[in-house]
Amino acid sequence: MWLPSRFTLKFAVCALRRGVLKSHPHVLRRGGCNTAAFMPEAAGFEGVSGRAALQEFSVSNSEDFWAAVARQRLSWVRPFHTVQDCDLSRGRIKWFQGGMLNVSVNCLDRQVHICPERVALIWERDERGSEVRYTYRELLEMTCRVGNLLKRYGVKRGDCVTIYMPTCPLAVASMLACARIGAAHNVVFAGFSAEALAERIRDAQSSIVITMNQGVRGGKVTELKKTVDTAVQSCPTVRHVFVAMRTEKLVPMTDRDVLMDEYVFSYHDGDVFGCVADIGWITGHSYIVYGPLANGATTVLFESTPVYPDPGRYWETVERLKINQFYGAPTAIRLLLKYGDQWVNKYDRSSLKTLGSVGEPINTEAWEWYHRVVGEGRCPVVDTWWQTETGGICIAPKPSEPDEEIVPGMAMRPFFGIKPVLMDTEGKVMTSNNTSGALCIAQPWPGMARTIHNNHQRFIETYCQPYPGYFFTGDGAYRSPEGYYQITGRLDDVINVSGHRIGTAEIEDVVNQCSAVAESAVIGYSHDIKGQGIYAFVVLKKNMKIKEEDLYKQLNSVVSEKIAKYACPDFVLLVKRLPKTRSGKIMRRVLRKVVESDLDSLGDLSTLDDPSAVQEIIEGHAKISTKGQ
Ligand code: 6R9
């Protein structure tokens, strides 16, 4: 598990404090102060000084780099004999062959050995002010109990356990327990329907599902056990359902069900990393569970929503838990921006050091607000680009030298060991700056995906074949004259208006700068003359009153001024909500289907955050297309 970039400096400090570096007395002298601060291991890299030199070393001497990191930061049961054996063009990705480790041992036992009473988890329960802290020792105990239970019910190495739970300590312990006994885990977001859950259980062929009697989020109770009962009816592999109690409510139990015991709580202080994603998404896996725990950090499990019981929830939580790093999604930032600054200013945010953003391009307005209002202009905002397939952050403004700039809304700098490249339409690497292309990664790194479960051929076709020898991300990016990267959105979303190719993110960024606009989604639709026309879906800020014609005029003038006339929307539809995934990404695919009047192939909408948003859009679009604009 690779470190989040924000952790590197902190890790260096912790490592010194904990004596990890004792066996490397010349760390600071040989690597130079700067380099050791980024990464203590750099001390062993002859002649490397400063962030840029370390980044260069990490890609040109990739094997030495990753071997040093792997040896220093992880405890191995058996050391590896070969650092890597990869061939991207064939989809062969093998790292650390011969080596054996247990990630749960690295997240728990290693930390318990160093500092058993440090707080590992702070569970920020939906009920405000009732947080619960777990030390590394307690989390290890809980994990061992779940692991034993799984073994007792026949789970073996290589099996896959389905976890259908909200973000909570027992869910983390269940993930780590699976890893401990060599089983895989299939964490399904606890808002998914019985049908969506059943499909994922069948795919994983799980014999065990772990769930809770009920879930609580945003003050609403969800019947998790009931959903599991329905789902498992069509899942013949399931033999047992483990049920933990989140509320007092007793739910019907059958012979198949196993009630899990309660555990012990205790309260301690510690450093606090607050990633407010759901553990059902990759951000939750890497930056709530494995990343922070493997580095001995204290991690927050946020069970609630950004607006429950009011839009000050995040910042009240920051004040109460003294969160140092806050990591969230642009969609939530845009939502909170709509409610105004007073919800932020009410709370003391002096504990905050770094603000992170992930999941989508962060538009300029949201970035500025996050930086100026939330971070009081003193916390760096890091726009981190990565994907489920990359395992961890690949491009981010930090780490950087202390005086280096951060450009709003740009992921900017490749992380250590990552070599991004841009490809042109002919599949050639573009070497110049100030250019846009398809974002690929030129060489393998240990955290990357190795295959798709039960479908290696699809893995090869999707990621390895489009640009042979390179890992294809599916995203487009722009490289600035200074060599910084900016993500322009999914390549499937790129619009081609009369031969001008433009990313949806670029137009949305400008549309969102209109004072009346809270957020927007832009898509291309087929146009007889221009090839593609531009259609913008716009959500207005709270209590905003503006005449539609005035809004269109404003939009046209700002888009033609900041981009060009060809980028002005042909259609603008005002909507109350945009269709989004549960992790907050705008589903432009659904919008395209509505505009193409292809309603039969909208796909499974139950995985949307709010499926009813689509109905409003269908109706709104029908009006526009009959009356014109
Ligand atoms: C971590 C995560 C991956 C896709 C990715 C890209 C988009 C993520 C972004 C970003 C612009 C950023 N994305 N971070 N776009 N700027 N900082 O989100 O994983 O759910 O797999 O999504 O999200 O399009 O390809 P995942």
Description:
With 629 residues, the protein is an alpha/beta fold. α18 (548-562) links the parallel β25 (531-540) and β26. α19 (588-595) packs parallel to α20 (612-627). It is globular, with a radius of gyration of 25 Å. The termini are far apart. Ligand 6R9 is lined by residues 282-283, 358-361, 383-388, 411, 473-475, 487, 490, 583.
Terminal Cα span: 52 Å
- The CATH H-level superfamily of one domain is ANL, C-terminal domain
Query: What top-tier CATH class of one domain fits best?
Result: Alpha Beta
The poorly predicted ranges are 1-33, 264-269
> What's the number of extended β-strand segments?
26
Mean pLDDT over the residues: 89
The name of the CATH topology of one domain is GMP Synthetase, Chain A, domain 3
Describe the global form.
Answer: globular
Which strand order spans the largest sheet, edge to edge or round the barrel?
4-3-13-12-14-15-16
Total helical segments? 20
User: What share of the residues does DSSP label as strand, in percent?
Assistant: 15-25%
Structural class from helices and strands?
alpha/beta
Q: Which ions and ligands are bound to the chains?
A: ligand 6R9
CATH architecture of one domain: 2-Layer Sandwich
Largest sheet: 7 strands, mixed
Task: Supply database-style keywords.
single chain, 629 residues, alpha/beta, Luciferase, domain 3, 7-stranded mixed beta sheet, 5-stranded parallel beta sheet, 20 helices, globular, disordered N terminus, AMP-bd_C, Propionate--CoA ligase
